[in-house]
Amino acid sequence: MIKMIQNWFNEYFSNPQVITLWLILLGGFLIVILLGGMLQPLFLALIIAYLLEGVVSLLMRLRIPRIIAVLITFILFLFCLFLLVIGIFPLMSKQIGQLLQDLPAYISNLQKHILLLPERYPEYVSEAQIRQLFDVIRSELTRLGQNLLMFTVASLRNLISLIIYLVLVPLLVLFFLKDKDLIMNWVKKLLPKNLELSTEVWSEANQQVANFVRGKMLEILIVWIVTFTTFSFLGLNYAMLLSFFVGISVLVPYIGATVMTIPVALVAFFQWGTSIEFIYVIIAYGLIQLVDGNILVPLLLSEVVNLHPVAIIAAILVFGGLWGVWGLFLAIPLATLVHAVMKAWLKIHKHHPEETAKTPE
């Protein structure tokens, strides 16, 4: 057994470049795990700068000097941030408060409809089971209210943190964009010399991840705007809040759209019952998901490596469990990185089997 493990290790890890690559990946993973909480503003700024680099590159292709392109991109970023903080977030906060106020009435209305089930299907469900279910729902709502009260008590601290983020993150974004080459050269000096394999992996993964992240952000924005416009036109309550979560749901392929059908359908049902307006909302939501899956995704993400659905779901479960919402957003890029690493690693082994297969005598 020990000999078999030793042979396997010598076969796949005898190349110094492979060891360098895995050490870099392990170091990056440990930094995120151990220092992720403290360096959260830095990581957030790094992700935003990575997204904005595409805009800078586009402006540079139009023969605009980099410093001017960075300033234009940064001003656009500040404008979008201002729009979010002043316009969109207060509206969403208002709709969240309204939803919490309306929840007891919604629960009572839903209970009236569900209590009819024991009369129609007494062999499958009893009234006691229904009442027990709603007791659980009310206890969860009470716990939610207590959490909101605790959040309100800590609102001053949250406000201070928000102000720090609103000042610190844009400043870091500007530095990352302006001094990109300087920072990259400094990082290269800290790394080992044998980086051919790592450079190959980075080149492939960077192209795939950049295509995915920028395409996915554009998809979220388009789905959010189209859904908000549609729900507002149909007069659906909480249009901004629901459309935001519909947009975010595209981060989780195959699952997000299905899960978001439930709150959209419930809000429409509580507002109109089983009227024609309810049917319009369900049809409109279905058409948005149909266009997103069959037109928008192939158009925006056509250059991204096609991962098997099992690999995507596994990546979402693993990285979502590790890092929450950020893990959901980064699951497919990280899976793409793992795919690039494995592809380059196996290619090295395939091209140099006579070197990697050697075992000590």
Account of the 3D structure:
With 361 residues, the protein is mainly alpha-helical. It has a domain at 196-352. It contains 14 helices and no strands. The chain has helices at 2-13, 16-35, 40-61, 66-114, 117-120, 127-153, 155-178, 180-190, 196-234, 239-248, 256-272, 276-300, 309-351, 353-356. The longest helix is centred in the N-terminal third of the chain and has 49 residues, at 66-114. Mean pLDDT is 77; it is low at 152-156 and 353-361.
Q: What is the structure about, briefly put?
A:
With 361 residues, the chain is mostly helical.
Q: How large is the count of helical segments?
A: 14
Mean pLDDT: 77
Global morphology: globular
Largest sheet: none
Strand fraction band? under 5%
How are helices and strands ordered from N to C? HHHHHHHHHHHHHH
Radius of gyration: 26 Å
Secondary-structure content class: mainly alpha
- Would you report the number of β strands? 0
End-to-end distance: 17 Å
Low-confidence stretches: 152-156, 353-361
Helical amount: over 70%
